Amino acid sequence: MSGGPGMDRSETARECAADSARVRDRAATRRRILDSARELFTADGYTQVSSRRIAAHAGVNVALINRYFGAKRGLLAEVIAGEAVYPGVFEGDPATLARRIAERLAARVHGEATPLQRALDGASGDPDLKAVYDERLKSAVLEPLEKYLGGAGARTRALSVAAVVLGLAGLRRVEGGAAFAECDRRELTERFTRIIEACLEESVSPGG
After folding, report:
1. Confidence bin at 5 (pLDDT 50/70/90)
2. Distance (Å, rounded) from C-alpha 25 to C-alpha 68?
3. Labelling 34: which of 8, 26, 110, 150 has CA 20 to 30 A away?
């Protein structure tokens, strides 16, 4: 006579093992797609790389990109999410926050960026890329800065800084990657620091 609790436990164990294997397979496939997208976006830019090319590079069916990421834009969002925007800036002494942000901005306009960031700069006019960048600004700059500042007026102060960052990004889209390239980096840092300090002021009195 077969069956019984022992067999039930054995079947349950096999099912759990199979489920775990499927989860691992999905995670590994997802990672391969992300790695392939990052490599291809870095080599050729976002616009020139199709979902089919990413899938072929990763050795998967193109339908999996839609299943795991929604579309190429969703894949781009996850690739960019892995790039630290302002690492360490929203930590430390609040008195030096403006200078920390200014130093990051000056470094960025002088070409200090990851290979992926430099590659994506060339496609900055792409609607998908712009939408992803805008969302990234909100999640990685605006919201952390507002939380870091805290208190009354934090939202307005954070928005003011974000406006400067967006304005700079817009200028670089118009002027290209060479915008500010000939400007002295230390002078730029000082100018950016003063602008951001004004944005971060806790209150602004009417009439000066």
Report:
1. low
2. 13
3. 110
